[in-house]
Amino acid sequence: MKTFLLWTSLSLVAIPGVALAQVQSISASDKRTGAEAHPQLVQEFGGAMKGPAADYVERVGRKIAVQSGLSNSERDFTVTLLDSPVNNAFAIPGGYVYVTRGLLAIMNDEAELASVLGHEVGHVAARHSAKRQQTATITSVLAGIVGAVAGDSGVGSLIGRGAGVGADLITKGFSRTQEYQADDLGVRYLANAGYDPLASSDMLGVLGAQQDLDARISGKANSLPTWASTHPNSVDRVKRARGKAQETGKAGRGLRNNDALLDAVDGLVWGDDPAKGFLDGQEFKLPTQRLAFTVPRGYAVSNTDAAVTISGNGGQASFSGGAIGSGGLDGYIGQVFSKLGGNIRHGQVQGGKGKGVDFRYAFGQGNSNAGPLDVGVFAYRPDNGATAYHFVTLTRSGQGIGPFESLVESMRRLSAAEAQGARPLRVKVLKVKAGETPDTFARMMAFPDAPLDRFLVLNGLEKGDTLRTGERVKVIVRN
């Protein structure tokens, strides 16, 4: 999960060896800066969720954030639940704190939620990004984010694009000392707020298990930005956080509020929301647009509001759409190339035959930090309407379409019944009955691969653990 922790003028708060800063409220300048950045961050991460789960996250976030000393008023903090499947949490100056529904869903109690949010606020309170980026500002970095998403920074900016692209431009990873400081602050905030401070080490363990599972299932290390990738985890770090919790004298004695967290996540969408497009096996479906295409095997998919990105060792493709204009598909292709930047000159526009929808396409040459690239634009006008859709493919120079031939030819129209029948995966909370085991619930999981491992990690369990009659567990079902 990516962390947007930026330069700020905030004073140090509660760092060992540094005098406690008596900060009563967040400065007006920080509030203005955060307020300016907030809408762009929310947009990049799928928008702000509304409803009981979002209200719950806001209450917990404000309760833990006020422990930082950045402000004595909970009303000074804006805590947002983001509609993103990527596991992420971050905070920015001005009292803005964020967590995604993807990360919320793998938590098991309220104290774990508070530990993550407290850790992020701790990074801001300790001014960690200020030490790494003395001249960066939120708005200047966000300008880079918008440019990368729109393609205005050149073809090279599209390389490695995915959910949370802005975090790559802001956070290059925290030092071990900075992570330990944020951990220490988070543990202190938990204890002061009345939570069990052991939740910090428990949450680090959950995140590590989830990252390991994702790597095993995909067959490679997770390349998407996640909380764990910007907050490097380790067994030693988990042990250290547990030790710090013991030092508070409150370990095991504070609130955990398991039921409150489970009530909040019950019914939460898991993974991509079908309304915004979702992966069904190897096929990515967009019910709203009534379109679908098949992703090459071994390629990762990242779905943001701006585009769907398909990435692998052979290159990257990006799918999006826009107004077709008066020039038809040929003119539309020219518009796409012009928005990529870098003065890319493309060759003659040609026609292609698809399995369900025909297309027009052209190739050009671009440059990136990795060297010269072949850049393809493949455009579709499935219903002769005012909107066109397109892939931008990026491969090494000389490869042309490379591994994406099957992708661009696979575009098809969804039937009305298919579009209407698209159902999301959701978190479902169940009560354990007598005789039920992890295998019982693994059979309910809506995944063909590793259902037992997925169930165990989702519930913070290990192989060999037994379930108690009456306890509540999470499963992922198609609803």
TrEMBL record:
The protein, known as: Peptidase M48, Ste24p
* Assigned GO CC terms: membrane
Q: Which residues form the Peptidase M48 domain?
A: 55-243
Q: Which domain of life is it from?
A: Bacteria
Which cofactor(s) does the record list?
Zn(2+)
Q: Which GO terms describe its molecular function?
A: metal ion binding; metalloendopeptidase activity
GO biological process: one example: proteolysis involved in protein catabolic process
Q: What is the lineage of its organism?
A: Bacteria, Pseudomonadati, Pseudomonadota, Alphaproteobacteria, Sphingomonadales
Return the Pfam families for the record: Peptidase_M48
Keywords attached to this entry: Hydrolase, Metal-binding, Metalloprotease, Protease, Signal, Zinc
Where would one find the signal peptide in this protein?
A: 1-21
